[in-house]
Structures are given as structure tokens and as C-alpha cells.
Design a protein that fits this description.
With 187 residues, this protein is an alpha/beta fold. It is built from 4 helices and 8 strands; from the N terminus they run βαβββαβαβαββ.
């Protein structure tokens, strides 16, 4: 089997991508390389794109994802995206946490659009713990439902990065979907 191709939305500096690619050592443990190739990356933050390029040798598309046509993205097997968290974070106070009432909080719809149009095998999305309670608990079920409507049975877990060797308590919701017709279950 050839390399799995990844499209990375809201790629930032590439934290998710490092984990997918593997072949690194951390706290005395070596993580083997995975059969992964990043074929597309996108982030609107110019400084993050520069760091991503330095880390991976790939120049991210720096356009607003809302103007990127799916046809402009190379074919891929896995879509990743840490869609913007400011709208969902419980630390957001100025302005107050708006969740889906903020345009950044709506950007997960762009992941759904690309999933519907490109139909990759799977996706991995990540966001802050506050997404579970945003908009009085109404945002998260809507987000999960939209991923399901894109054709992906969805599983999610709340994980604490401190349990994985990261020197900080950083709770994140990880959402994984595998295309329905593949009849695979993520556990």
C-alpha cells in the first residue's frame, strides 16, 4: 500500500502533522515513522505557515479556507483540522465565548464542505474542551451531526495531553470519522 495522503486544514505550525508522520523521539521514547505524506496544508496565519514550511518543507496555502475550492486541493486519504478554538474556549472573555455565533466558530463547516466534495477515507478534527459546553451545550451536537451528514460515522474523546508526555494540562476533544462505506469503526 502506498503512503496515506493527508490534507491539513488550520495546520498551524504542524503539531497534528508531526504526530501523524511519526519518526521522532520524545521523553526518551522513539515513535516510528508512519506511511504518511502531507499533500496539502492551509492556514490563514502567515507566521504559522512559515513555521510549518520550516518544519515540513511544504508551503501552506495561506488563503482563507472559505475561498479555497475543493478542486484546488490535491486528492488525499485523511483530512485533519484543528478548526479555530477561540469561539469555544472557556478562557475567551473579550469578546465573550460566542461558539457558533462567531464566524471563526463556523469554520468547521469548511471541513464538512471539503469532506462532502473530496470524500477522503477519514478525518481527524481537534478542538478545546470548551466546545462541549459552548452555546449552552448546543454547539457540539450540531458539529457532530454535520460531520455525520458529510457521510462519516463519528467517535470523539476528551484527551489530556499531560497523559501523553506533554508538559502541560491541555484537554482537547479529538473527533474521528471514517467514511461510511468503508464499514470501519474507530475505537
Amino acid at each position: 500500500m502506498g503512503k496515506l495522503k493527508v490534507a491539513s486544514l488550520f495546520c498551524g505550525c504542524g503539531g497534528t502533522d508531526v504526530g501523524l508522520i511519526g519518526d521522532f523521539s520524545f521523553l526518551g521514547k522513539h515513535y516510528s515513522a508512519n506511511n504518511i505524506e502531507i499533500v496539502y496544508a492551509n492556514d490563514i496565519e502567515e507566521s504559522a505557515c512559515k513555521i510549518f514550511e520550516d518544519n515540513f518543507g511544504i508551503t501552506p496555502d495561506n488563503r482563507d479556507i472559505r475561498v479555497v475550492k475543493s478542486s484546488e486541493i490535491p486528492d488525499f486519504d485523511i483530512l485533519t483540522g484543528g478548526f479555530p478554538c477561540q469561539s469555544f474556549s472557556i478562557v475567551a472573555q473579550n469578546p465573550k465565548r460566542l461558539g457558533l455565533k462567531d464566524e471563526r466558530g463556523m469554520l468547521f463547516f469548511e471541513m464538512c464542505r471539503i469532506l462532502k466534495e473530496k470524500k477522503p477515507k477519514a478525518f481527524i478534527a481537534e478542538n478545546v474542551k470548551g466546545i462541549l459546553s459552548a452555546n449552552h451545550g448546543e454547539a457540539f451536537p450540531l458539529i457532530i451531526n454535520e460531520f455525520k451528514k458529510a457521510g462519516y460515522p463519528v467517535e470523539y474523546k476528551l484527551l489530556n495531553s499531560a497523559n501523553y508526555g506533554v508538559p502541560q494540562k491541555r484537554e482537547r476533544v479529538i473527533i474521528v470519522g471514517i467514511r461510511k462505506d468503508l464499514k470501519k469503526v474507530f475505537t
